[in-house]
TrEMBL record:
UniProt topology in membrane: Multi-pass membrane protein
Protein family membership: Belongs to the glycosyltransferase 87 family.
Designated name of the protein: DUF2029 domain-containing protein
Annotated keywords: Cell membrane, Membrane, Transferase, Transmembrane, Transmembrane helix
Length: 387
């Protein structure tokens, strides 16, 4: 036991070298994707983020099409343009590079805060690299959300409720669903203090755009945002629902009765996981729940797209690395990395890529991992040591 603690607190020279090597891989991968983005100009999401700041300060609607500026819609919280302000005012290429590096190393930092050995940190960082680079390539915000979700859970576990509340609120002010990890406050001490800071940061963030626009304009932005995110036809179908629709050759965007039953089962599973966590009252159960939430919020999200999966994959890889049995860990990690992270890319034969994309198989391994975590939460019998 003493040797385990020493290995956790005092990383060896070898582990430090490996960490530096992985950091170099993260940097190199990000720089390559930055150069690719500059050459191809495939940075639609980044244009959406940058333009939102100009639309906000000039009193323009945030949630309408601007085909002359970018494709798709701005789907984020009305306060997001203010948070993105530093990247909106810098020169385009510099801000893009800083944005991509921020997303990359936010995940790198957050993973290294997990209660694990340096070897386990490095394993997690390596296994999520492909999924992370996929998200970075699209200049998405999902890696940053992944980091904030991890840091929310970690800080709640450590009793740092003010930091946890801040991260929870930032998640909400980017994409509302990321704040689901705040549920973990129910299972730690200092609940009222956490809620107090959530209220303080929540009110501050909600009113933040008033520094630049009128109350009436802000109210309209919130009304438009709520109408947009509750529209059932805002769907990417890279979810469990999408996979089932694909297997039934139903490629319409119409919600089906089966979707309602699946979502009801998903809510029931989440409630069961929360109850099991409350009963267990261990660090292990709380981190199991954190991973559960990170997977759940993606695979049952009909607006999820491929870059969103860095959230779910990071949660799954982290918990499998830390707490699963070795045989189960090997099988699930191989399935996860191959089917979820590799098959949807051009790194596999075309027939495998076509199969994975057509039938939305990206979600399949994560559904199995979620079920496995559900079983672990239900049958858990105390702490599992980190070896």
């Amino acid at each position: 036991m003493r040797d385990v603690l020493l290995s956790y607190r005092l990383p060896t020279d070898k582990s430090q070298r490996n960490t530096r090597l992985i950091a170099g891989m993260y940097t190199l991968g990000t720089l390559i994707l930055f150069i690719q983005a500059v050459l191809t100009q495939r940075i639609n999401n980044f244009h959406i983020f940058r333009s939102s700041w100009g639309h906000l300060v000039h009193g323009l609607p945030l949630y309408k099409f601007y085909p002359a500026e970018y494709g798709d819609l701005f789907l984020y919280h009305p306060s997001f343009p203010v948070l993105f302000f530093p990247f909106a005012v810098l020169p385009l290429q510099l801000s893009l590079l800083l944005w991509m590096l921020l997303n990359t190393f936010a995940v790198f930092y957050a993973v290294r805060q997990l209660p694990a050995t340096p070897k386990q940190h490095n394993m997690i960082l390596l296994l999520i690299l492909l999924e992370l680079l996929n998200a970075i390539q699209s200049s998405q915000v999902n890696p940053l959300m992944t980091a904030l979700m991890l840091l929310t859970g970690i800080n709640l576990q450590k009793g740092r409720v003010r930091s946890a509340a801040l991260f929870t609120c930032i998640l909400f002010f980017i994409k509302g669903y990321g704040a689901i990890v705040g549920i973990m406050f129910l299972f730690v001490d200092r609940k009222l203090e956490y809620l107090k800071y959530c209220i303080i940061f929540g009110i501050t963030g909600t009113l933040l755009p008033l520094l630049f626009i009128s109350p009436a304009t802000l109210w309209q932005h919130y009304a438009d945002w709520f109408a947009l995110i509750t529209d059932p036809f805002i769907r990417e179908d890279c979810s469990l629902f999408g996979m089932l629709h694909a297997f039934h050759h139903d490629f319409s965007r119409e919600p089906t009765p089966a979707d309602t039953w699946i979502f009801a089962a998903a809510v029931g599973g989440l409630a069961t996981a929360a109850v099991c966590t409350a009963i267990a009252r261990t660090e292990r159960s709380r981190f199991l729940l954190l991973a559960y939430l990170m997977i759940w919020v993606v695979i049952f999200n009909q607006a999820a797209e491929s870059p969103t999966y860095v959230i779910a994959v990071t949660g799954a890889v982290s918990i499998l690395t830390l707490y699963s049995h070795k045989s189960v860990k090997l099988v699930l990690l191989v399935l996860l990395i191959f089917v979820t992270s590799l098959c949807p890319t051009d790194l596999v034969p075309k027939f495998l890529n076509d199969l994975a994309v057509t039938y939305q198989l990206k979600v399949f391994p994560l559904t199995i991992v979620l079920s496995y975590i559900q079983v672990m939460l239900f049958f858990q019998s105390g702490e599992v040591k980190i070896d």
